[in-house]
Amino acid sequence: MLLDIHSLSKIYGQSCGHCLDETGERQGRSICPQCGSVVAVNRACLQIEGDEILGIVGESGSGKSTLLQLLYRDVEASSGEVFFHVIKDKKNRPVNILDLDMLQTARMRNEMMSMIYQNPRLGLNYLFSAGGNIAEKIIGAGEHRFEKIRNRVHHFVDKIELPGTRVDDYPDTFSGGQQQRIQIAKALSSSPNLLLLDEPTTGLDVSVQARILDLIKSLQKEMGFAMIVVSHDLGVIRHLTDITVVMRHGSIVEYGLTDQILEDPQHGYTQLLVSSIL
Amino acid sequence: MTEIRFAILDEDAKKEIRRALLKAVSLPGYIVPFASREMPVARGWGTGGMQITLSIIVEEDVLKVIDQGCDGSVNAVNIRDFIVAATGVETSAHTDEASLIQTRHRIPERPLTEEQILVFQVPYPEVLTTVEPDTGRQKQIHAHREYSRLWVLLYEDTAQFGESRISNRYPVEVNGHFVMDPSPIPRYDIPRLDNNPALLLFGAGREKRIYAIPPYTRVKPLVFEDRPFLVESFPGQCCERCGANNVFLDEVHGEDGVHYFCSDTDYCDNHQKRTDHAA
Amino acid sequence: MDNKNSYRLRVHNLSKHFVLHQRGGKRIQGFTDVSFSVRRGELLALTGVSGSGKSSALKTIYRTYIPSRGRIILESDDDSAVDLACCSESEILSYRRHAMGFVTQFLKILPRISALDAVAAPLLENGVDREEARQRAADLLDALNIRRELFNVSPLTFSGGEQQRINIARGVIAPRKLLLLDEPTASLDEDSAGRVLKLLHRLKKQSISMIGIFHDRERMEQVADSEYQMQLERL
Prior knowledge:
Chain A contains eleven helices and ten strands. By secondary structure, chain A is of the alpha/beta class. Chain A folds into two domains: 196 residues, P-loop containing nucleotide triphosphate hydrolases (Rossmann fold, 3-Layer(aba) Sandwich); 68 residues, no CATH class. In chain A, a hairpin with a 2-residue loop joins strand 9 and strand 10. The relative contact order of chain A is 0.17. In chain B, strand 11 and strand 12 form a beta hairpin. Chain B is globular, with a radius of gyration of 19 Å. Chain C has seven helices and nine strands, in the order E-E-E-H-E-E-H-E-H-H-H-E-H-E-H-E. Helices cover 34% and strands 26% of the residues of chain C. Chain C has a five-stranded parallel beta sheet, with helices on both faces. Chain C is of the alpha/beta class. In chain C, a hairpin with a 5-residue loop joins strand 4 and strand 5. Chains in contact: A-B, A-C. At the A-B interface, helix 3, helix 5 and helix 6 of A face helix 4 and helix 5 of B.
């Protein structure tokens, strides 16, 4: 077990105390009729093994990106627990990462969990070169030897098939697909245990998309980290993931092997989703 | 009519500055805000250093003021005359005679002692401005010592130019904790911040900030473990006036070429005297 | 060593139906009460008319379909047994990695990867070193009569028959103990089909168990040890 999510919720607004029961899949809404709060994620439970690739699908507003942001702690959860089994307390018990302070969160992000955003502007620092961006994560993980940092930067620049001569160029001078590759190199440069991807190829043209997915998949095989991929594109989910979670109105409505979700969906909403896309 | 108050500042102002100084000394390298007063010179002309000096100076002090190592430059002379007018203290150009030294951009060549206080004039107190413009986030970065971005600048310079391009204001880690801007002293002076017996105070009047390095504090420049920290060197050059060759030299470009002189005029005078004696 | 007489897979009363929520909960029967066993080193052929649920049965065993009822007992070499019908998704993934494989007639591989690397990939995942993996992949492709000039080309550009042989090669190069074969010889000519059947015979000698669907009775009889006939559901 790598990640264990217990009843994780996110409510936007002053909760009236009934929001979670008044919203979700069964209620067919994510806005609480009593107080108007928006329940973005409603008591999500999920477990991920150390080498699994999990996909989250659902329409816009289903809460899939919010769920990812809660895990990365870009957004504070309203309730629930998330045990990330590489972070343990002194008694070797897994720690609820929602309780981590800022320094511990920074450490978690630098060493154990990375995020790849749909928009590279969120994941890259445009004041730094491509190499500088990759170096930042390596340095953040505690490496202060220049040669080690430089070698590791070049190692990942090779991996993402960027010409080594361009390592010191700034992100603005690269194409959208290349910027996404730099983001991938940055995210992986600290050898994380878990990689979160939020719509990693949306907005790229189709041929570039395929190559980015190809790159992510081969790096995952080589390095062996777990991944959670959020996408509204079932093609991406089919291509990348082993297990798929379907979300609607903030609730998880179905969980299953990806081929099962696509070929034998159980829930009515999943059947609609699959039939409308295929 | 009221008399001119000793050291100009009213007692409440001095007290406020001294409180900021106490906090700064307690948290080496931490930037403490203070209510920077109007001075009879424009902000940006050493008002931060002046306010520190005026709030801690006592009648027994012997004052020395230098600008880039020089006691005789216009700014140094004006500031010194002003402080003397406001306090009546004695002055000296000799580093070893001074108890309180206000400086811009240099640390005197002659080693300081536990009896001395060195006050730096600081233009930009925040070391993080180049990598994080948001002051709120700057505070968080300091609180968590998340200085990766400063290291990235160092990485980029080293990758492209073989070493850091920072010639002055080189970032230093103080007491194994905060990283701070040591004011625009040359790299040559950076190692001399480390374990210095004197109390080092930093004042930025325009930015309204004070910080400090207490005596005998560990100060080390941000440098990769596998790279040396390089300081300015002047191979084959010595001061044309006194002949010193183990000091920080000023380069003077004249019509007849480049000339080198000691940046620290007091050191230069002493060294010349000693060589004259020997001769 | 494997006990040749012991079972690899026992399927009891396996049934599958689909519920279409978008059509008012309409129920479609896939197959009902299927029971059979496969011994180690045995190839069982699923037969039956079109629509009798042969492919569905394979997919249900592989858990691409969720079983509606029944048991799927998979035995490992140490005689421990699990019911795939009630394993968690993570457990199924682990069995798919180590214990059971699915060979379809459709090639599903990444673009831009050469035929040789595509076939060598399962060996690399098992920790075989790169040179040896490529050598064994080349031997297998030779055995399946793939021309050497195609080795370094992406299989996505190949003919249907060539693609299918690449797919079979990928499925058997590092064979799981249980292989599910969905029409492995479908679009192959006589020569290629013969080579594939020869390969299946070789796998049986390695005590690999297989369940296969063959579109051609003659080919099926050349390789199958037993047969299970699926019944067409009467509505």
